[in-house]
UniProtKB/TrEMBL annotation:
SUPFAM superfamilies: ABC transporter transmembrane region, P-loop containing nucleoside triphosphate hydrolases. One of its GO terms (cellular component) is plasma membrane. PANTHER family: ATP-BINDING CASSETTE SUB-FAMILY B, ATP-BINDING CASSETTE SUB-FAMILY B MEMBER 6. InterPro entries: AAA+_ATPase (IPR003593), ABC1_TM_dom (IPR011527), ABC1_TM_sf (IPR036640), ABC_transporter-like_ATP-bd (IPR003439), ABC_transporter-like_CS (IPR017871), P-loop_NTPase (IPR027417), Type_1_exporter (IPR039421). Residues 349-569 form the ABC transporter domain. Keywords: ATP-binding, Membrane, Nucleotide-binding, Transmembrane, Transmembrane helix. It is a multi-pass membrane protein. It comes from Maridesulfovibrio salexigens (strain ATCC 14822 / DSM 2638 / NCIMB 8403 / VKM B-1763). This is ABC transporter related. The chain crosses the membrane at residues 69-90, 146-171, 177-195. It is found in: Cell membrane. Residues 18-317 form the ABC transmembrane type-1 domain. Its main location: membrane. One of its GO terms (molecular function) is ATPase-coupled lipid transmembrane transporter activity.
Amino acid sequence: MIKKIKGLLNPAQKKSIFALVVLSILISGIETVGISAILPFISVASDFSLVTGNKYYNFAYTFFGFSDAQSFVITFGLVLIGFYVSRGFLNLCYMYFIQRYSQGIFLSLGTKLFSNYVHIKYQDMTTRNSSDLSKKLITETNNAALFFYSLLLLISELFVSSFLYTALLVVNWKVTLALTGFLGLMVLLLIKIVSRLIKKEGLKRNQFQEVYYRTISETLSNLKFIKLMAGEKTAINALHKSGKGYVDAMVMNNTYNTVPRLSLESIGFSMLIAALILALQSGQAISSIIPVVSLFGLAMYRMLPSVNRILSSYNNMLYYNKSIDLLYEDFHLETHRLGNDPIKFKDQINIRNMSFGYTEELILKNISLNITKGEKIALIGESGAGKSTLADIIIGMYTSFSGNIDVDETPLTEKNMLSWREKIGYIPQSIYLFDSTVSENVAFGRKFDEQKLKEALNKAELTPFLEQNQGIHTPVGEDGSQLSGGQKQRIGIARAIYGNPDLLVLDEATSALDSQTEQRIMDNIFKVSEGKTLIIIAHRLSTIEQCDKVYRIEDKGIRLIEDKNTLKG
């Protein structure tokens, strides 16, 4: 666990946690002084003769030039009041610092994980569940922040309890050891029983929360199908079941966490009262034991919550322990950092003996293909034959293939992949649009150039629609909800050609459209791709009629269709 904790912290955070520990030691010393100062104040306030009779009080009385005992005691009290106010402010600052630190952990972990996810190999990402990733980014990182907050609180309270315990030993070691024996036994029992139960609830919390997130993600992503199948009740029941399990785990955790406080307070103060009763029965003068009892009472009043917070923090760390495990796994993911070495595409793309498989079983085997600059080619074949996979390899989504891909005799590698992707325009079947304007969806994170943007929109034949609305600032709605299917595809086209790519790839880009809309959009695509290389993946013959060459992917291989007329019928 220590290795994982250190592995999740950056160098600055490791230095900060050390500084916070030092600050907690300082605060613990101040807490001890604050509690210990009560005993001498009560003593001199109840017996003014101690001011001159005690050598320590007398030294302070003489050094500061007091003329009477009453003014000395009043000043002593005022100094204590100032001390306690300052102590409270310092404690407030410390709580702010550890809250700031723990929430900073949340932000840094979330940012690091998100960076890992967006830089992971695309092939690896396709095997992961998006709802699980969202859970880690949102919930588990927050749980990790609570884990580190509990850790810092535990360290702080350990120092406070240790300092106060030492002070009690000095005052009366016999009573202190007696209290220690009883309370120590109780703490061990609580750790043995309650902590185990809390850790168990933490595992339940993680399991039910995973199902909860997955149910939400899958339901909202497939709402149309669920409605069609009248499956609303099934989805709601699934969410309620996992939500109930999560809530039950939280309820039991919070309940178990109150057990230490209630147990320690009941036993601790009962023992203190019992000690006072025994002292009275033994005939001791009440005035002689009140200062000591007062000190122990105040110390217990501060120590019992401190011990309770230690136990609660320890239990919280057990409860959120699974979050640390989950984050540590993805914190050290092998990311896919690509280079931006220059690469030019003037003549051809040459694929030689390329093989690829998601697992050990190959999908494509010994593929060889030449694509000349400016050529329009189509890839056809049965579903699952590998058409989209081949296109994804060409555009650099999958890099774990055998064989060679050369662009103008320059091997396509991870060192020049970013440069290569800048030369590609990609139009998928389902156009991803975020809830913003047309201009922001077309530029999509690239440098904004209004002239280039309007040219791209004009080539995609979106200008008439935009002129009837708010121009390039027309909102598209969530996932393009305010647009028709054809308008969404045209935004996809404008996005693809905005960067003036050398290679355009259409992956079933018009399969969801009606024939007339498809024909208009395909005519448009061939028009805007003049002088550019075009790769089309399609099933309909009408989509590929204007292509120069048609290749069929089958039996893990590829072959050229010599006569496109053979495809008819």
